[in-house]
Amino acid sequence: MRACTILVLSLLLGGCDHGRHFVAMTRSTATFTACTPDPRILCEPNAEKLAAQIAPLVPPALAIIESKHFAHFAGPVRIQVYASPESFSRYSGASTGAAGMVTRGAVHISPAILAHPDGPAEIVAHELSHLNRALQLGPWRMVRLPGWFSEGLATWASGGGGPAYEPNIRHAIRNARHFEPIDLQPWWRPFQQPPERMSWPVYYNQTRMFVRFMHDRDPAAFRKMLDALGRRDTFADAVGTWYGQPLADLWQAFLASLAS
Fold it and tell me: For residue 32, what are the contacts with CB-CB under 8 A and spacing of at least 6?
C-alpha cells in the first residue's frame, strides 16, 4: 500500500514524467519470450538480435556488480530487451533517448545502448547496479536513496564515465558548478534530475567521482555503509555511523581534495 500511495501521489505532483512511468507499469509483457540461452533475458518480438548481443555481457556484469556492492542479488534477475527506443520507452517509462532503465523489478534495455559512449557492457553493468540496490532495499527505501548516490555508485561500479572527462569535471567543481549531495531523496521527487543547466554526462561523472572518493577514503567504511543500507538503515545513519562524520563533512573533504 505504501508503494501504491507513493506512486499515485508522485503522479499527481510530478506531471508528465511520473505519468509516463505510471502508464508503463500497466503494460503487459505477455508476448515477451526467452530468446537466448540465458533465461534471465526476455525479448520483445523482433528484439532477438539485440538480445544475442547483450547475453554474453550479463554474467561478467553480474560478477562486477556483486563484487563492487559486496552483495549478491537479493532476488531474481530479469532483463527485458526491446526492438525499438519507442517500445522501450512505452514499457519502461524512460525517454526514447535512454539506453537502459530499472523499473518493475527488471532491467530494461533499449537499442540505444549500441550507440551509448560508455558502451553496452558498462550500461548493462550500470543498470544491474540499480537492480541490485532495488532488490536489496525494496521500492520505498529505493525511492528515498539519494539519486546522486544511486547514479554515482552505478557509474563507478560499472566503469562508466571515464578519465577523459575528469579534467573538465574537476574544473567545473572547483568553480562551484556542481551538484549538492543530499542524504535523503524527497519521496515526491523520486526520479532524480541533474541540477539546472547540467548535462547528464557531467552529473554522472561528478557523482561517480564523489562515490569513488568515498570508497578510496575508507574502503572498509564504504563496505560497511553498503551493508548497513542492505539492512535497511537510512543513508544518513549509514554514512554517519561508519565514516564517523556526516555526509556534509565528507563532501567538503572531497571538494578540498580537488582544490589543488
Answer: 42, 43, 44, 80
pLDDT per residue over 177-204, tens digit each? 999 999 988 876 756 678 888 888 899 9
Domain match, 125 and 160 both: no
pTM: 0.89
- Report the sign of the C-alpha dihedral through residues 190, 155, 210, 243, in that order: positive
Residue 81 in 3-state DSSP? Answer: strand
C-alpha cell at 135: 532488490
**Residue 133 lies in domain:** 29-144
DSSP H/E element including 102: strand 100-103
* Residues 155 and 127 grouped into a single domain: no
What size, in residues, is the chain?
Answer: 260
Buried b (16+ CB within 10 A) or exposed e, 150-171: bbbbbbbbbbbbeeebeeebbe
Cell matching residue 36: 537466448
